[in-house]
Write a structure and sequence with these properties.
The chain is mainly beta and 368 residues long. It has no helices and 26 strands. The strands form 7 sheets. A 5-stranded mixed β-sheet has the order 7-8-9-10-14, with no helix packed on it. Strand 9 and strand 10 form a beta hairpin. The two termini are 37 Å apart. The N terminus is likely disordered.
Length: 368
């Protein structure tokens, strides 16, 4: 999830008509100047606040430590909680987020203080509202060449998480309860893609699960594969066009990736699932256009797409998305969707801000 432009995807088993409308949008928070910037990993904390990560970019050696962001969309307040113990003279990035509950967040960083390499940190909030960090899991690797990325929870008791190695197309699983090195859970055996600056062909990226039975155990895993175009259109292999994909894994069946959607040269990045809706951002360092799409067929395997254009000049290269779920109001579902602007290209917005959190209102009429 290191790079992005806005392109969102939604699925629902509810029969929704095709007349979804994008309502108003508004900037609800701005990532303050002087922080690392390049925010990522946006998720709902469940108490009205959002959480994010920074800085999800290369070139952070010598900069501030990676940080957990606490964002209040009602007031615009943003609190940055730095990772303790990083060697900031070396490369370091804060990337993936998964919310366990309102007081617990798992956070992936390319340079963790416990191992010095790819690591999962557990942030916990005490009764006084103070956040502390502990080591949760890791895998062998270096901060620059082994890119830890997305993370999701597959079991709440004991807490067990999956996290991706985007550079080597592997998914690792933590020990139950954390506290130790992860093991390979799935090796996609895809060709290793180059890490192209300012960001393109990455490999297995963000993940999210759905729990059909609400029993705390995942039933299906969704994972994005971030491909993208050859950066100059003519370079020899391995710099070739690679299509981005959406994959799923049946958590009760064979541990294999099943292709669900081919994005072509769009680059699927962040992902979220709530109320039987799947949302995905697509990333492109070459375009700042934003679209909102509904991917139908989550349950029947059709995976068709309905596209909508998002007009929000204050959101440049959105890196992640979170949904607060749908609310039935009369004949329509109303969705509050938040996305965060990564703005890898540092393109000034009309307000002059680089990294914003933008809320979208999406209305969808109910079909017959």
């Amino acid at each position: 999830m290191l790079f992005a432009s806005l392109f969102l995807f939604m699925t629902s088993s509810t029969a929704l008509a095709d007349n979804c409308n994008l309502g108003s949008w508004e900037v609800v928070a701005t990532i303050p100047a002087g922080t690392p910037g390049y925010p990522e990993g946006l998720k709902s904390l469940g108490d009205g606040r959002l959480v994010g990560s920074q800085a999800a970019a290369f070139g952070q050696a010598g900069g501030p430590p990676s940080a957990l962001l606490l964002i209040d969309p009602k007031t615009g307040a943003v609190q940055s909680i730095p990772v303790d113990g990083q060697i900031t003279a070396l490369e370091h990035a804060g990337v993936g987020i998964v919310v366990v509950d309102a007081n617990t967040v798992l956070f992936t960083t390319t340079q963790g203080p416990e191992t010095g390499g790819p690591e999962v940190i557990k942030f916990s909030q005490n009764d006084e509202g103070e956040w502390g960090q502990t080591y949760f899991s890791s895998y062998p690797g270096t901060p620059y060449t082994d890119i830890i990325n997305g993370i999701t929870v597959i079991d709440n008791d004991p807490l067990t998480a999956l996290f991706t190695d985007a550079a080597n197309n592997k998914i690792y699983v933590s020990p139950p309860g954390g506290g130790g090195q992860g093991t390979v859970w799935l090796d996609a055996s895809f060709p290793t893609l180059p890490i192209i600056l300012p960001g393109a062909q990455m490999g297995l990226n963000a993940m999210v699960t759905r729990d059909d039975n609400a029993d705390g155990e995942a039933d299906e895993l969704f994972v994005t594969f971030t491909g993208g175009p050859d950066p100059d259109g003519a370079a020899p292999s391995p710099f070739v066009d690679v299509n981005g994909k959406l994959y799923s894994v049946d958590m009760h069946g064979p541990r294999v990736l099943v292709e669900r959607y081919d994005f072509g040269l769009d680059m699927p990045d962040g992902i979220d699932y709530r109320d039987n809706e799947l949302w995905v951002t697509t990333a492109s360092p070459y375009s700042t256009r934003g679209d909102l799409s509904r991917v139908d067929g989550l349950d029947n395997g059709g995976y068709g797409v309905v596209n909508f254009t998002v007009e929000s000049p204050e959101l440049v290269m959105a890196s992640d998305v979170t949904s607060l779920g749908n609310v039935l109001q009369g004949p329509k579902f109303k969705h509050d969707i938040f996305s965060i602007g990564h703005n890898l290209l540092n393109i000034p917005t009309p307000s002059g801000e680089l990294h914003n959190v933008v809320k979208f209102r999406v209305d969808c009429g109910i079909g017959d």
